[in-house]
């Protein structure tokens, strides 16, 4: 997905925060990627959120988190890092409900034995509050998650791509395993309806983990 080239003027605090983020990523990916690649991924990640961020002060943190995920994905795609655990990517339209709940359920049930990522074709500005509430009932906190797009390297790094309602906008790359889940969209629904969607997703996530031969506690 192309990134936007437009960017609001950065404050001094944001500039300093981005420098800190770049230093953090440089230490983590030392020997894997050079400074130019890290800077490019960090700043394009920042641009992904700049036009729709609700809290501007969080932008450098969001950019660092997203850049980290993208760099890990790129390292896998380019054979610079061997990830011994399966990676599942959950995609929907707004990355605010279904894909976030599926990622949370997958991560909890896999307990480190598999990795979950998520993304959306038209990312919203925040995660659905009803989705946050019903996930909290299961002891899963997705309140700190954030809607984000998918990128080519993230899709290519996934072992299985699960799509939910993004239609023709969903990315298709040869060699990836794809599944389409017909799961209701929680947008605009209350907690009772979203709770049923969560339970549907849990059944599907458990089935996927079994297919991936990921043992559950």
TrEMBL record:
- Top-level taxon: Bacteria
The UniProt entry, under InterPro entries, shows:
Phosphatase-like_N, Ptyr_pPase, Ptyr_pPase_sf
Q: What is this protein called?
A: Arsenate reductase ArsC
- The organism named in the record is Pseudonocardia alaniniphila
**Keywords, in A-Z order:** Arsenical resistance
PANTHER family assigned to the protein according to its UniProt record, in alphabetical order:
ARSENATE REDUCTASE (PTHR43428)
Cytoplasm found in the keyword field: no
Where would I find the Phosphotyrosine protein phosphatase I domain in this sequence? 86-211
Q: Is Zinc set as a keyword in this record?
A: no
């Amino acid at each position: 997905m192309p990134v936007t080239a437009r960017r609001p003027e950065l404050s001094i605090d944001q500039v300093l925060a981005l420098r800190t983020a770049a230093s953090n990523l440089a230490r983590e990916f030392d020997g894997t990627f050079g400074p130019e690649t890290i800077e490019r991924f960090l700043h394009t990640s920042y641009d992904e959120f700049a036009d729709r961020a609700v809290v501007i002060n969080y932008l450098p943190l969001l950019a660092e988190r997203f850049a980290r995920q993208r760099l890990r994905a790129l390292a896998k795609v380019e054979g610079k890092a061997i990830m011994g655990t399966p990676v599942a990517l959950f995609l929907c339209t707004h990355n605010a409900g279904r894909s976030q709940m599926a990622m949370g359920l997958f991560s909890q049930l896999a307990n480190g034995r598999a990795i979950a990522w998520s993304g959306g074709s038209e990312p919203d500005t925040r995660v659905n509050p009803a989705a946050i509430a019903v996930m909290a009932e299961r002891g899963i906190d997705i309140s700190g998650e954030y809607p984000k797009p998918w990128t080519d390297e993230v899709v290519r790094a996934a072992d299985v791509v699960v799509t939910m309602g993004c239609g023709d906008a969903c990315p298709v790359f040869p060699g990836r395993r794809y599944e389409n889940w017909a799961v209701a969209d929680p947008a605009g629904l209350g907690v009772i309806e979203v709770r049923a969607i969560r339970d549907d997703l849990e059944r599907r996530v458990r089935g996927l983990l079994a297919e991936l031969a990921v043992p559950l506690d």
